Amino acid sequence: MKSSAFSLLPLLAFVAAFAGGPLVLPEFYVTLLNYIGLYAIVALGLVLLTGVGGLTSFGQAAFVGLGAYTTAYLTTVHGVSPWLTLPAGFLVTAAVALSLGFITLRLSGHFLPLGTIAWGISLYYLFGNVSFLGGHTGITSIPALDFFGIELKSGREFYYLIWAALLVIVLATRNLLDSREGRAIRALKGGTLMAEAMGVDTPRSKIVIFTVAALYACLSGWLYAHLQRFVNPTPFSLTQGIEYLFMVVIGGVAHVWGAILGAGLITILKQWLQDWLPQVLGQSGNFEIVVFGLLMIFVLHRARDGLWPIILRMLPEHTDRPRVPEAEALPRRPVPAANAVLLDVKDATKRFGGLVANNKMNFNVRAGEVMALIGPNGAGKSTLFNGISGVDSLTSGEVTFCGERIEALAARHIARRGMSRTFQHVRLLPTMSVLENVAIGAHLRGRKNFIHAALRIERDEEARLLHEAALQIEHCGLREHMYDIASSLPLGKQRIVEIARALATDPCLLLLDEPAAGLRYREKRALADLLRRLRGEGMGILLVEHDMDFVMGLADRVVVMEFGEKLAEGLPAEVQSNPAVLDAYLGGVE
Ligand code: ADP
Ligand code: MG
User: Fold this and answer.
1) pLDDT confidence of residue 590
2) Below-70 pLDDT ranges, the chain
3) Angle between helical axes of 82-104 and 202-228 (0-180°, round to 10)
């Protein structure tokens, strides 16, 4: 996320507009602002879902409909108080979102948006065809909201409720994003591989944002029903679902304020175009849709991140990225007994179709040793890392970690048991700071969930997680880069950030895939010192590295791989003088 998803200046403007708007504006503008507020609440759900989590939904309008129809039906048919129909709507929406989420969120790539279109259409037709919901005529005579004895009958009165709700949603969203759960959600966007390796339950994170976005939509629907006092299916159609997506894409899909900006722009523009285009063209019709389509294409070409980042550049420099707080250190895992076998790999085999990338690999790693895995490019080292760490499954073989068989476990369950890793192709979240990236590593060391985060009652734990991240950053010699954006670092240093992130999981076994690549001589020496110190503390380290001076000066034992098989194993000196190794790996000796 760009330097501020949320900053003070827009908040002040928001509050000023909120307080003064209805006092000075004519009725027409108050109505317009009401709609902007209603749309913005839905759009904020899309920021969470699409902008931050990377999951595109065309179906949000259907959830708005669930909120609206639940209250319409319960208040008019059963005489339930509107204040009780809101929690009822939340329950209905959560139930529908959870069931739809379990089915659709498994879909990958463009199948997910297609899935959302499918249920978006289904729910719309359901609203129109169920007789107790009034069919296409809908439900009328929905009661006005009664707010401590004041009937919210006019738009002017309703305005404060809508914009107060929006303010609450803005704050909750912002709190959620700035938390342990928020980092897990932001980690979804780069694919789930890294997040899972750091212990994030990614299916759960997806379900959470999907449900939260649906609940926002439901709230908007409930407000809408009591503002309009009647509902019919039209505003909950797929077209409206697409319009919500337009709003966030044009405003800035990854930004809390972008959603509000987009909702405002699209709503005002639509109003204006609906008045103006038919006059110009001399016939009536929904021509504004054509203009929106063109606008969308233009934005996707010229300002892919939407308009908010452009405005942000004009505002004074400001950042709300987390800083390192004072906090108590997190508890550590007990250090394994010296020399205990941490990892035991037996006959590990991995096939990619006809290619055997790992063939019956056998070796172990003990506590307090550096085991190096070397071999030419394509030997199968990274594949073996993936098999051991659960990032990919082995075709056959056994992996025992701390006395427990783990080859059938998912990466996040292996991470929880104390194994952590870095990736050969760096997997950092490029727009997040070094501190935030490393804090993802501490994910499993926190307990507080998204509700704690939204209410901001997890600050103690959050401080301890950030504190831990900062500690590991300092250990890795990156203190000066603590608040830098990860992508601004040279690649070599990004690899060290990955080591800090792995250390933040508090592992007893560390898997490092080419950590010294791209480092300068002095940086390599510092890295070797760090690894020696970790070894001294009892950590087991499995190291893939091409720099032979680095490997031979550091490793206690070496396994040499070629064509997926083990060619040799032994002390560095033995391996270095092994003729088979010299011949195959070093290309013969002089
Ligand atoms: P190393 O890390 O030792 O350089 P890798 O483990 O990356 O080697 O690759 C070993 C072999 O497996 C290579 O021939 C590579 O092309 C192949 N390979 C790796 N990943 C995949 C994959 N996902 N699908 C098919 N082949 C793969
Ligand atoms: Mg590799």
Assistant:
1) 40
2) 1-7, 317-319, 585-590
3) 140
DSSP 361: E
**Pocket flag, ligand 1, residue 348 (CB < 6 Å):** no
Last residue of a domain, one of 506, 541, 561: 506
Question: Whole-angstrom Cα distance, residue 482 to residue 519?
Answer: 18
Q: Which residues sit with Cβ closer than 5 angstroms to ligand 2, an ion? A: 381-382, 424
- Domain stops at, among 256, 279, 314: 314
| Same domain flag for 366 and 287 | no
For residue 231, the enclosing domain spans 4-314
The count of structural domains within the chain is: 3
381 Cβ below 6 A of ligand 1: yes
Asked, for residue 544, whether it belongs to a domain, the answer is yes
What pLDDT score does 535 carry? Answer: 95
Ligand 1 atom nearest the C-alpha of 377 is 4
Give dist(CA 491, CA 519) in Å, integer. 8
Taking CA atoms only, the protein residue closest to ligand 1 atom 7 is 382
DSSP 3-state of 559: strand
Q: Do 184 and 245 share a domain, yes or no?
A: yes
Helices 434-441 and 491-503 pack at an angle, to 10 degrees, of: 40
Residue 318, pLDDT score: 63
Ordered alpha helix ranges (H), 47-81: 60-77
Residue 13 burial by Cβ neighbours in a 10 Å radius (0-12, 13-18, 19+): exposed
- Residue 489 shares a structural domain with residue 552: no
* Ligand 1 centroid, distance to 425 Cα (angstroms): 13
Does residue 360 sit in the same domain as residue 502? no
* Nearest ligand 1 atom to alpha carbon 381: 3
Residue 586 sits in the same domain as residue 470: no
The total of other beta-carbon atoms located within 10 Å of residue 136's CB is 11
* Claim to verify: residue 268 and residue 414 sit in the same structural domain: no
Summarize pLDDT for 108-131 with one digit per residue, the tens: 778 888 999 999 999 999 999 988
Q: How far apart are alpha carbons 182 and 462 in whole angstroms? A: 11
Ligand 1 mean position to 357 CA, how many Å?
Answer: 6
Are 310 and 406 part of one and the same domain? Answer: no
Could you tell me the CA-to-CA distances from 385 to 103, 144, 334, 340, 382 in Å, in that order?
Answer: 31, 62, 24, 20, 5
* Count of CB atoms situated within 10 Å of the CB of 588: 9
